[in-house]
Write a structure and sequence with these properties.
The chain is an all-alpha fold. It folds into 2 domains: 372 residues, MFS general substrate transporter like domains (Growth Hormone, Chain: A); 54 residues. 77% of the residues lie in helices and 0% in strands. It is built from 18 helices and no strands. Helix 2 runs antiparallel to helix 8, helix 2 packs antiparallel against helix 14 and helix 10 runs antiparallel to helix 18. It starts with 20 loop residues before the first helix and ends in a 7-residue tail after the last helix.
Length: 512
């Protein structure tokens, strides 16, 4: 792929330095927080059923347990990426790792849904320090474009590898320990980072940073949080005055943030990058491919355990083939990009995502084999599209601004996580509420819980006689799966439109 960044100080005849043993060792260290974030995401999906029955959250609390982490993360990524450029990317990575480890222990022992939501918010705060730092350190560690493309492919594959490892390890923990044990996975992953990071990672920062701009920090957070929250609210409750007001307010603050960046000589975020259609297109591909993956996992992880009756470990192994395929296609993306234009590779990946959702539509019985095929198609598409889009985003920014560019990439990723859960999860919840039939014998809190989530219905059924209990469980399972067709249709349409957009915006980028 051609570099989209501004010309560097290197002359046309001077090749950039190639990475050696230390740089590849640094990549291995950088994969630790990437592995953690990927594991953390899929582990939580599989912990939802046992967590629902233990803490008895409402449907709204359950969505907040999932959403608050990426919401806070998305609100702070731009600020943290800019801060990393100024104070040092390695320094911020180590600070975030220490905080994330400590808060994870608190989350593991959270006594209530509210306490877990608080812990997840704090994890979002420290998590915002991790991912932009890893990608920006990678950008500055690998100056050679071919090596950087390979490193980005490994970085993206590590996301998929963590997603594959997370359910297996998490399944073992959930079958042998309490739900909170899944949060303790961060301890053995991040402690080696704290030890090895200072040894192998070279510090890097913007050589000519501007002053930290508190007003821009507040504006970026104040714009992102209400806008994403409004989308979540509108998806769940429909058009309401509160939801629309928050959306308009978030967009207005976003406009103020952009205007401030354009006026400053050293902006916190160089929004002029978005003038480049390749950069903008790659960011949208990043966001929407993650949207499809997270929305699919939200549905399938609950279906396999609560409808198909699989244990957490069985459900994890059911999804492993698709996750392995995601790793393989991500690694293949780098060599393929030398011969095939990025636009074609990205469009092919997004088309595979659409086929995956289409397979769900035709799998009306909800068979496990059909879901495995659907997820294999989706995994192949996400692996291809994510690798290429992340490399395009990195190559569009000069090395000194790697933190800010990485933050944009990660912001797109986390917004995709929020939207995938909020939009597709809310469609599932709405279908469930509209179709579940509750027995008259069910009253009080149990009736409220059973009417909102499948996990709540299964838990409430334990308080009923055999006949009504069986009827409630059967109705709840049917009501949950009734939303799968709508979710799949939305996924197909969105992925096809995104593929068309990618062909238009990335068409000028040639194969390397």
């Amino acid at each position: 792929m051609t570099s989209l960044s501004a010309p560097t100080a290197l002359s046309a005849t001077t090749a950039p330095p190639r990475a050696g043993r230390r740089e590849w060792s640094a990549l291995a260290v950088l994969m630790l927080p990437v592995l953690l974030v990927a594991i953390d995401g899929t582990v939580l999906d599989f912990a939802i059923p046992s967590m629902s029955m233990a803490l008895k959250p409402s449907a709204n609390e359950l969505l907040w347990i999932i959403d608050v982490y990426p919401l806070v993360l998305a609100g702070l990524l731009v600020s943290m990426g800019s801060l990393a450029d100024r104070i040092g990317r390695r320094r911020l990575l180590l600070i975030g790792s220490l905080g994330f480890t400590i808060v994870s222990v608190f989350a593991a022992f959270a006594p209530t849904a509210g306490a877990l939501i608080t812990a997840r918010a704090l994890l979002g705060f420290f998590g915002a320090m991790l991912m932009p730092s890893t990608l920006s350190l990678l950008r500055n560690t690998f100056a050679d474009a071919t090596q950087r493309r390979t490193a980005v492919a490994i970085w993206a594959a590590c996301f998929s590898g963590g997603a594959a490892l997370g359910p297996i390890v998490g399944g073992f923990l959930l079958e042998n320990f309490w739900w909170g044990s899944v949060f303790l996975l961060s301890v053995p992953v991040l402690i080696p980072l704290l030890v090895l990071g200072p040894i192998f990672l070279r510090e890097s920062k913007d050589p000519n940073p501007g002053r930290i701009d508190p007003v821009s920090i507040v504006l970026s957070f104040a714009a992102m949080v209400p806008a994403v929250f409004a989308i979540k609210m509108l998806a769940q409750e429909g058009f309401t005055v509160t939801g629309l007001a928050m959306l308009v307010g978030g967009l207005a603050l976003g406009v103020l943030f952009v205007r401030r960046q354009l006026r400053r000589s050293s902006p916190m975020l160089d929004v002029r990058l978005f003038h480049n259609p390749v950069f903008s297109g790659a960011v949208l591909v990043n966001l929407l491919s993650v949207f499809s993956l997270v929305g699919f996992l939200y549905y399938v992880s609950q279906h396999l355990q609560l409808v198909a009756g699989q244990s957490p470990t069985q459900a994890a192994f059911t999804l492993v083939p698709g996750l392995v395929i995601s790793i393989v296609t991500g690694l293949l993306a780098a060599p393929l990009s030398r011969r095939i234009r990025p636009a074609s590779l990205v469009a092919a990946g997004l088309s595979l995502n659409a086929l995956g959702f289409g397979a769900v539509m035709f799998n009306s019985s909800g068979s496990v084999a059909g879901l495995m095929v659907a997820f294999a198609l989706l995994g192949a598409g996400v692996g291809m599209a994510e690798t290429i889009s992340n490399d395009l985003i990195l190559s569009a920014a000069p090395p000194a601004k790697a933190g800010a560019a990485s933050a944009i990439s990660e912001t797109a990723y986390e917004v995709g996580v929020v939207l995938g859960t909020a939009v597709l999860g809310s469609l599932l919840a709405a279908a469930y509420r509209a179709n579940v039939v509750l027995p008259d014998a069910l009253t009080g809190a149990d009736r409220e819980s059973a009417g909102q989530t499948l996990g709540g219905a299964i838990d409430a059924a334990s308080t009923l006689p055999a006949g009504p209990a069986e009827a409630l469980i059967a109705s709840a399972k049917h009501a949950f799966d009734s939303g799968s067709g709508v979710v799949a249709a939305v996924g197909v349409v969105l992925m096809v439109l995104t593929a068309i957009m990618s062909l238009a915006t990335l068409r000028k980028v040639k194969a390397a």
